[in-house]
Amino acid sequence: MLDLFDVLAPQELKDTFQQKGFALIPRILREDALKLLRDECAMLQADAVETGRDLIDEDCTLEVWKDDLPATGRSCVDAYFERRLGLSADMRQILTMSLASLARVALGGMPPLLFNEHYVVKVPGAGPFIWHTDAAHQLEGMIALGIDTTSSSFEYVSIWIALDDVNHSNGCLRLLPLNAPQPPGAWSEPAGPTTVDWFEGQGKVRGWGCRSDSVSSI
Questions:
Q1: Dihedral (C-alpha) 141, 78, 216, 47: value to the nearest 10 degrees?
Q2: How wide is the angle at C-alpha 30 spanned by C-alphas 21 and 168, nearest 5°?
Q3: Residue 34 near residue 214 (C-beta atoms within 8 A)
Q4: Residues in Cβ contact with 105 at an 8 Å cutoff, skipping those fewer than 6 apart
Q5: 120 phi/psi in degrees, rounded to 5
Q6: Is the pTM for the entire model greater than 0.70?
Q7: Maximum CA pair distance of the chain?
Q8: Helices (DSSP H) in the chain: which residue ranges?
Q9: How far apart are CA 42 and CA 49, in angstroms?
Q10: Alpha-carbon span 64 to 62, nearest angstrom
Q11: Which side of the chain, N or C, has fewer Cβ within a 10 Å radius?
Q12: Are 108 and 11 in contact (CB under 8 A)?
């Protein structure tokens, strides 16, 4: 298993995240680790098919947790794995060492609290996702869990891993650094018509794309 800090030093990751608002980390996971994630994703997708669920109706999202994860499982590794059964040692390392370490460094050393984990699968006929702000929906969920999002120490980080090769032709992420022109509206509010119009125009032109496989964007 690849040590994540073989590809990016902790201070470099922290500095890049603070300066740009994101960090791109090529080859953060080796092919064998990616295969473990792909296999779990395929298993969840097969379960959706067997139970007659339409992924398009579920926003192309495969939730790892069918029921809410207990509060203790969000902060305690042992409690987490009491519910996340049947994982190999390598899969455990990916979830609690590689990815958790990324989050911890980006948060300035603060122990991360797991909020959510899921797979996004764009099935045929799904079409493009509409422009939206993740933060608004995530904040709603955090507030529902009793997390104090108004605290000065509150910080939130997402880790996105491409399980397939991504490029400009098949829908890669476009990331804007903090010093680039930003869309109108508060980041914590759902994207309204003005924000959508901005993204359709200037946002697409100025967006940054991920090209490599196994790219993690924090």
A1: -70
A2: 55
A3: yes
A4: 10, 13, 14
A5: -110, 120
A6: yes
A7: 47
A8: 10-20, 31-50, 71-75, 77-83, 89-93, 99-106, 134-144, 193-198, 204-206
A9: 11
A10: 6
A11: N
A12: no
CA dist 121 → 2, 60, 61 (Å): 25, 5, 6
Side chain identity at residue 23, one-letter code: A
Residue range 159-206, pLDDT digits in tens: 888 888 877 777 677 777 888 777 787 777 777 888 778 877 776 665
- Dist CA 142 CA 69 (whole Å): 13
Reported as a single tens digit per residue, the pLDDT across 71-89 is: 788 888 888 888 887 788 8
Total residues belonging to the chain? 218
Q: Which residues of 71-99 are buried (b: 16+ CB within 10 A; e: fewer)?
A: eebbeeeeebeeebeeeeeebebbbbebb
CA neighbor of 41 nearest in space, from 67, 13, 60, 68: 60
